[in-house]
Amino acid sequence: MPDTNANGTENGTIRFLLDDTVHEVANVAPTTTVLNYLRDVLQRTGSKEGCAEGDCGACTVVVADLDGQQVRFRSMNSCIQFLPTLNGKALYTVESLKKLGRNGLHPVQQAMVDCHGSQCGFCTPGFVMSLFALYRNNAEPNRAEIDDALSGNLCRCTGYRPIISAAATMYDYGRDLLDEQELTRRLEDIRPGVSLELSDGDNSGLQAAGCPDSTAGGRFHAPGSLSELAGLMIRHPEATILAGGTDVGLWVTKAYRELPVIIYLGRVAELDYINETGDHLEIGAATSLTDAFAAMEKHYPELYEIMRRFGSPPIRNAATLCGNIANGSPIGDTMPALISLGADLVLRCGSTTRRLPLDEFYLDYRKTALQPSEFVQAVRIPLPQGSGRHFRSYKIAKRYDQDISSVCGAYWVQVEADAVAEARICYGGMAAVPQRAGRCEAALRGRPWNETTVETAVEALSEDYQPLTDMRASAAYRRRVAGNLLKRFYLETTGVEAGIWAR
Ligand SMILES: Cc1cc2nc3c(=O)[nH]c(=O)nc-3n(C[C@H](O)[C@H](O)[C@H](O)COP(=O)(O)OP(=O)(O)OC[C@H]3O[C@@H](n4cnc5c(N)ncnc54)[C@H](O)[C@@H]3O)c2cc1C
Ligand code: FES
Ligand code: FES
Predict the structure, then answer these.
(1) Distance 498 CA to ligand 3 centre (A)
(2) CA angle in degrees (0–180, nearest 5) for 59-63-66
(3) What range does the domain containing 340 cover?
């Protein structure tokens, strides 16, 4: 058990497993990225920096932690993960793999060599680590699962076919030497018992090594319980909440912002949960998108494509659903679907909680209803009930994988006796916030569920939104595509032949 100081917090030291060794770091700027630490301090230069924003995958590493008694292996973008988030976990980099191979190279690496999966090699460590995560988590992936596993990695010269072949054949090289039981034991040994608190210290070790983040100061709190988190938020209303860091990380690596006080949610076990009550799915604020989406897909398989197209596995492994909601981007991909399903939020301030429908949460561009010291504790999603309900959500982006939406639409209607009894339609990318289409909904309600009604509802959309032209899409394109998605929803859910709108 790590040492603790007088106020019950760990002694400002981050501990994680790196290969077989417990690695300890003190006096580190809390916003030091895992990638900079690996490259500048440990001289582990296998992990590369391409974009420094989670987009290219050159920096991919695998992080293992305990989910109850089970080890889970997750690919992550080390360029946007802050080092203190590794506390109590195990880190695998491309350098780790050779030690896990039975005959020199790891099966993943040998398959890459044999399939000629590398040319210039800049992207290769990242691909290898994404494949290593796949190798550990899925013994028999199909082609779609391989494509998904690699969707966060860009290669500019080899082309993807040889890499996909390596993914398909890496299992032929047998099991690697990683002993999961031993890893579980070692992770239990370093499992943090209490909260972690770091101040910027003198950063001397990092400055000497020329680590670029080493001058950034700040305090990092990783509370170990919900009540401690709530207390910290009361004491530090100005703090930046850090969940998965897939938005916050870029504030540091791209916007060079300093974050004087960070409060990290990743150690609050009471927030890492998925509960199914009679009529709701409740998802806690520290639950990753990977886990949240798996639970949501069981009830809403219609969401498969939009979930699959959200970032990439390393992004979904780190990011949280509540982080997407709280970040409040007008083009966030989950909010239209959640709003149209009628989701609400559990908000907490101190020991007080309140419920708020998600469609009342967004007040203006990046402005939410959160009060000082208040945070999102959970999101509650109604489960499907009864018949006659139709639901879809569609994402329009320039690229299928790993791209930001131009428009994202979500559609929920209740049809009774061939007429629309209730409708909730919501778009992202059409206004300053994810916003319901009130006039469009009114044009549907009480009318027959047919093409004429849908035509009228499409026209009403132009009164609901005055979209912008920006680098992703023109206003005219957004208007056109928003209407077409509503038509697509109608066609898909009624089985009516496409082509009726060709007139
Ligand atoms: C490469 C890349 C691809 C991406 N792709 C997509 C995509 O396809 N679709 C999409 O919608 N987004 C995408 N994103 C954006 C991002 O991944 C999501 O918004 C993600 O859900 C944020 O969650 P997080 O846990 O990482 O949040 P963080 O970065 O930790 O936090 C985000 C914001 O929310 C606040 N916050 C977090 N949790 C809480 C809480 N419980 N209570 C109050 N405030 C809180 C933070 O203070 C911060 O302001 C992408 C990002 C990257 C880097
Ligand atoms: S450097 Fe591009 S994803 Fe990290
Ligand atoms: S091998 Fe050159 S970028 Fe992939």
Answers:
(1) 41
(2) 170
(3) 192-199+214-385
